[in-house]
Design brief:
This protein is α/β, with parallel strands linked by helices. 32% of the residues lie in helices and 24% in strands. It has 14 helices and 21 strands. α8 packs antiparallel against α14 and α9 crosses α10.
Length: 466
């Protein structure tokens, strides 16, 4: 972890201002009374013995601007800020806004270790031997779970929140965490619709982890966001959630009619390689798959994988380049040859991704074609592991999936349309959202519409939910 200390210290030392002494002076605009009070609370927290501070704020309340000021303030005090996101896209979004390298929580404190018998990669929490004082800024904390999830191909012995807290406390004695998030967004995957995100609950952190800390609430929409129809609807949804009284418009954003209209709107705004221009969002995988198929057809993309396909990584890739689950890329080339191992089909492809500095890099790797159609079953994975144990001596001896081009093959889905859960932590200029659902879920609506920066289209299907 000592290398990480150096990386973050170097990045933070690039922030030059040292003449300004209070946190308020690092904000590039005149704050509202609420924002000024929040900054004073954060500054008091940084000077206190508390372990954590929760900064809860809805879309448009200025969380990002405030946290950007916090990172500059910390750097001026020679304190290392460590910006983290629960997903790759959330981390990249955070890093771009703060002007600092941000990383995923998983890459910060986990080391992957292959479990051949169970056909999974176990995430082993690394020791934190960094002696430098650090303030960890956990953005999009509504996504951080405090429950074990053994359903994926990467599993940990403890919940993500538990390992994060332990890692932070193992380092410098004065290390602190600032949890930043929007309590109105969807809770972590696997939580009920009315459950609250544990990382945004001070009582949970105090009782379960014996931590000292408090909460800062931001509720006022910034002046420059007051005219935004997207944020106005978000405000109405928040009020409905708070009062449990449904007072919301039948139509959210501009109306689109049917799948073909959604595809037309998407293609009018789509630009190859510009992944933050436009996205189609929905609650269901089936609608996501349908729209991806329609868009690929309109773009003339044939077969399972084609040059110029926009794809999203569905499993973290730990090869020469670390590429987090959820990252979007563009297929640059596809080999015509097919490889078949353990009844699974692979194809070699070159795929371009962008790093946290928006610089493009390419990965030449096998792609598991089956993953483009459906999620692999545990039996299929075990079959592949067993095959590699028989046929691949290097993997058999090391148990490192990087020694197997088949086990380390990229697992992808098409990246034009996504589920709202997959979209958390990301933003687009335009969002086209299918609001169809069986039971009205205001947090789903709120999370989806607040992914849009400028334009929002919906089909009004939420009107028919029970």
């Amino acid at each position: 972890m000592a290398i990480d200390c150096l990386i973050f210290a170097t990045a933070s030392n690039q922030k030059p201002p040292t003449a300004m002494t209070n946190l308020l002076s690092f904000l590039p605009f005149t704050p509202t009374t609420e924002q000024a009070n929040a900054l004073r609370s954060i500054e008091s927290f940084l000077d206190s013995d508390d372990h954590f501070l929760i900064v809860r704020g809805a879309a448009g309340t200025g969380k990002t601007s405030i946290m950007s000021a916090v990172t500059q303030y910390l750097a001026s005090k020679s304190i290392v800020p460590v910006p983290l996101g629960p997903t790759g896209r959330a981390a990249k979004n955070l890093g771009r806004k703060m002007g600092l390298p941000a990383r995923t929580m998983h890459s910060c404190f986990y080391t992957p270790q292959t479990d051949v018998e169970q056909a999974v990669v176990r995430l082993i929490r690394r020791a934190n031997d960094c002696t430098t004082l650090q303030v960890f800024i956990a953005d999009e904390s509504s996504m951080v779970s405090d429950r074990l999830d053994a359903s994926g191909d990467f599993v940990a012995a403890n919940p993500l929140l538990a390992d994060f807290v332990d890692f932070v406390r193992q380092g410098h004695a004065q290390n602190k965490i600032i949890f930043v998030g929007d309590a109105y967004q969807l809770p972590p995957v696997g939580y009920g619709v009315h459950e609250e995100a544990p990382a945004l609950l001070a009582s949970h952190l105090q009782q379960r982890y014996r931590l000292r800390g408090s909460t800062v609430e931001l509720s006022e929409i910034k002046r420059q966001a007051n005219g935004s129809p997207i944020l106005q609807v978000a405000h109405q949804l928040r009020q409905s959630m708070e009062t449990r009284r449904l007072a919301m418009p039948n139509y959210i954003g501009q109306l689109y009619r049917g799948d073909q209209d959604a595809v037309r709107l998407y293609l009018e705004r789509f630009e190859q390689g510009q992944h933050e221009r436009v996205a189609i969002l929905s609650l269901s995988n089936s609608y996501r798959d349908k729209c991806n198929a329609l868009i690929r057809k309109e773009l003339g993309l044939t077969g399972c994988l084609a040059m110029n396909d926009t794809v999203v990584l569905t499993q973290t890739h730990m090869g020469q380049h670390y590429v987090a689950n959820g990252e979007v890329g563009v297929v640059k080339a596809v080999d015509s040859r097919r490889h078949r191992v353990a009844d699974l089909e692979f194809v070699e492809a070159e795929i371009a991704f962008k790093d946290e500095h928006n610089k493009e890099f390419s990965i030449l790797s096998l792609v598991l074609k089956n993953s483009l159609i459906s999620k692999l079953t545990k039996e299929q994975l075990k079959g592949l592991y067993a095959s590699e144990m028989r046929e691949n001596k290097a993997f058999r001896e090391s148990k490192d999936i990087r020694e197997s081009r088949y086990l380390s093959a990229l697992q992808l889905n098409y990246g034009h349309a996504l589920t709202v859960h997959k979209a958390q932590g990301s933003e687009w200029d335009t969002v086209i959202m299918n609001t169809s659902m069986k039971t009205l879920d205001l947090r789903f609506l709120y999370t989806g519409i607040t992914r849009a920066r400028r334009e929002l289209f919906t089909n009004g299907a939420h009107r028919y939910a029970a």
